[in-house]
Amino acid sequence: MPRNLVVGAAQLGPIARAEPREAVVVRMIALLDKAAARGCGLVVFPELALTTFFPRWYMPDQAEVDTFFETEMPNAATLPLFERARALGIGFSFGFAEKLEIGGRIRRFNTAILVDGEGQIVHRYRKIHLPGHTENEPWRAFQHLEKRYFEPGEEVFSPVTALGGEIGLAICNDRRWPETYREHALRGTEMVLIGYNTPVHYPLAPEHDHLQCFHNHLSLQAGAYQNGLWVVGVAKAGKEENCDLIGQSCIVAPTGEIVAQASTLHDELVIHDCDFDRCTEIRANIFDFAKHRRPEMYPLLSAPIATRR
Ligand code: CDV
């Protein structure tokens, strides 16, 4: 019996700092409607999809930072999205800044959720690889203060059984790390959903600015192929305030081939009919982990600090 899921990668164009969540949700619902008309069962939105990418600004006042966080999900602003998706019977995923109390302590995470066709949140992932820096660095054209505003997630990469397959989540910088995909694959993930906000300009190595798009696809395609899983990479794209963000949202087959790709830097939907069973083409052959993988020969891969000997 075929195990197919028509997936929509729903790229968002820029979100202005002053743009209210309600306006963004209207844009997301428009993409959702388009996806439903094209037969999608799952729509994937980017990282921090409800607001502008606020870590680009140093804000000394925590109260101001907190205006970008959600304290419940769904909430008043996002409920229309949940309701429309449920009415359409479509699953969806998006990222948001999450603030919650755990054990009497306020915690803040860069989070993504997966919602099934009945409107239930069935998976939640908190970003593990937080890039950037902690202190204000005024020499930069813009900041990248994820390490200041978020704590790293504490739960490992893992899939959930939903929408006909084993679906996992990762967020932006995670896609550059081979460990992300391998951990997912070892746990049985068949499709990883990865929203991102990636500036064209990388202040620490501006000589790589022209490689940002290349590195994006290089990472997504290698991760898919080397682990035999589907990858859905979804950008927040275009000129967002003072920052140019790459686009290139795409769906990558387990063979590493890009099977759908956005061609604009605006709100755009690209879709593909994904067969979960295609993971076997790779996992039963060239990357048959049980047969060919040699974990005893890679002891440093999960050691906290790599040493040369
Ligand atoms: N949002 C991100 O995680 N962005 C990072 C950059 C800027 C290093 C990324 O890996 O794309």
Layout of helices and strands:
Layout: E1 4-11, H1 21-37, E2 42-44, H2 62-66, H3 79-88, E3 91-102, E4 105-115, E5 121-126, H4 146-149, E6 159-162, E7 165-171, H5 178-186, E8 191-196, H6 212-227, E9 230-235, E10 238-240, E11 243-245, E12 250-252, E13 258-261, E14 268-275, H7 279-283, H8 289-292
Parallel strand pairs: 1-2, 2-3, 7-8, 8-9
Antiparallel strand pairs: 1-14, 3-4, 4-5, 6-7, 9-12, 10-11, 12-13
The structure holds 3-methyl-2-ureido-butyric acid.
3-methyl-2-ureido-butyric acid (CDV) is lined by residues 47, 131, 144, 172-173, 176, 196-199.
* Major β-sheet profile: 6 strands, mixed
Under CATH, the topology can be stated as: Nitrilase/N-carbamoyl-D-aminoacid amidohydrolase
End-to-end span in angstroms? 50 Å
Helix content: 10-25%
Percentage of β-strand residues: 25-35%
CATH class assignment: Alpha Beta
Quickly count the domains. 1
Shape: globular
What number is the mean pLDDT?
A: 97
Unreliably modeled segments: none
- Number of extended strands: 14
Q: By CATH's scheme, which homologous superfamily applies?
A: Carbon-nitrogen hydrolase
Distinct ligands: 3-methyl-2-ureido-butyric acid
Strand arrangement, largest sheet?
A: 5-4-3-2-1-14
H/E topology pattern: EHEHHEEEHEEHEHEEEEEEHH
